[in-house]
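Can't paste images in this forum, so I'm doing it all in text. The chain is below; anyone willing to post the predicted C-alpha cells underneath?
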Amino acid sequence: MIPTLWGIITINFIIIQFLPGGPVEQTIAELTMPNITATNRLDAKSTINDTGNESNPSAPAQSVSEETLARIHKMYGFDKPVLVRYWDLIRAYSVFDLGKSYYRNTHVLNIIAEKMPVSMSLGIWSTLLLYSISIPLGIRKATHQGTRFDSISTNLLLLGNAMPTFLFAIIMIILFASGEYFNILPLRGLVSDHFDLLPWYQQIMDYLWHLVLPITSIVIGGFATLTLLTKNSFLDEIHKVYVTAARLKGLSSDQVLYRHVFRNALLIIIASIPGAIIEMFFTGSLLIEIIFSLDGLGLLSYEATIQRDYPVVFGTLYLFSLLGLLVNLISDITYRLVDPRINFSRQMA
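Text version of the structure:
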C-alpha cells in the first residue's frame, strides 16, 4: 500500500509540473483581460499592492509586472525548487495535510468532509441494494438454469444494463417526479427544505424517500454484471466432483448449496466488492449528482478538474486511492475468513 500511495503522489506531482493551463496561467490570463476577478483573489491571498492596471479589476491590463508574477508563483507554491516542492508534498500527504483549495479558500479535508455525506449516502445504499438483490437472484438463476424464470430475468437484466444511467434517471423523473404522469417522488436534493422541522422518524422517511430515484438510477445497470457473475460462479461449483459426492452422501440440495457451494462460489464475488464500492462512491455518481442536484464528491472532483484546483483534485484522488487499497485489504482478509484454506504467506513463499 505504501509504495502504491507513493507512486500516486509522485505521478500527481509530475502532472502538476507539466500540465498546461494551471492556476498560474489562469491567474495571469485573468489579469490581462477586462472585467477580471483575479485581482481580488490575489488581494485576498497575497496582498498585492502593485500600482497600475493590476489594482483595478475593471480595467484591462496589457502585462503583468515581475513583482506580481512572483507573488502569483508564491501564492500557488511554485516559487520553490522542484525537489523542495516534491518533499513538501510527500511530507504533507503522509500526515493527511492535503493543503488548501486555490479558489475556495479552505482546507481540502474540510471540503471533502462537507461533500462526503452525499456520496456516502449514494454509495452505501447503492452497494447494499445491489448485493442484496443480485446475489440471491444469481443463486436462484443458477439453481433454475434453463427455466423460463432464468430466460426472462436474463433479458430484463441485459435491458437494464444496456440503458445508460442518465437516460434511466430522466425516464424515472418523467414518470414519477415531473407531474406529467405521477408526482410521488422528490426531484432534487437529499432532504426536504423543512427537514429540520420534522420529527426524527419523519426525517428518516424523508431522507430515504429522496434516495429512491438516484439510488435506483445508479444500481439499475449494475444488476446484470453481479447477478450473472454470481450465477456463473455457482454453476461452476455445482458441477464439480465434491458436489456430486456430497449428494451421494444423502445431503439435501440446500445443504449442498449453502454448506459447500456457497463458500467456494462466494470468493469471486468478494473479489468484485472493492471495484464496486469505489465505482459506486465516486465514479458512478457524477451524472446522478448533476441530474438530481446532489452536491457530492463526484461533482466536486469534476468542478475541481475544470478549474485546475490541484489541491482538491489530487487530494480527493489520494483519499480515493487510499480507500481503494484499504478495501482491497479488507477483501483479502475476507477471503481468509470465508475459506481458511487460503494462505497468502504460502503463496508468497
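Residues 109-348 form a domain with the MetI-like fold fold (CATH 1.10.3720.10). The two ends are 19 Å apart (CA to CA).
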